[in-house]
Amino acid sequence: MDWKRGAYPEFKIEDAIAVLFLLKTPKGRKQISEELNLGEGTVRTLLKKLSSIGLVESQQKGHSLSEKGVEIIQEISKLFSEPLEVTPLEGFVTYALVVRNPPEFKSIELRDEAIRFFAKGAMILTVQNGEIVFPEDGRPLRETLPELSEDLKKLPVENGDLVIVTWAENKADALKSLIHVALSLKGELLPEEIKKLVE
């Protein structure tokens, strides 16, 4: 039996954050389980933990964020934006988000982090003079990938921001690898309640 799906309801901080973003609209346990590729037992445990610290409420129509949950998501959104599904790259499910005020980084290390977390690939971009560009040479993304560039305009970007794009075989891996890269840059600044979830 695959232990991940079995008796040990294990989840990572990436799962917890993905669930909080998903619950901006009410969802049932089965839907969360399918979208994040987690066992239902794991989702039950995670939701129980999130509601025990007052972030999630459960009603007949499913689970949703409490007022405190909404506040926590707003705090997280000051660090990095909500993941956005964008045009598929290389035929894979693709997501993007913005990391605000990024610390110093090496693109190659961030790409490696994404791939270690089951992404098929990742792209690290920066915003300069209102334009999303490749940090290595300042080349505008729109010159190589106009469709993706158009999609990324939906993100709340400002000069100096970092834009991370990851793609994977399924939604769960694309989403969680993306959040993982954002956390590798901003993890220490997460609200304490979220950090404690996985201690």
Automatic annotation (TrEMBL):
One of its GO terms (cellular component) is cytoplasm. One of its GO terms (biological process) is translation. Keywords: ATP-binding, Ligase, Nucleotide-binding, Protein biosynthesis. The keyword Transport does not apply. One of its GO terms (molecular function) is ATP binding. Residues 13-70 form the PH0730-like N-terminal domain. This is Uncharacterized protein. The keyword Ligase applies. Residues 94-185 form the DUF4443 domain.
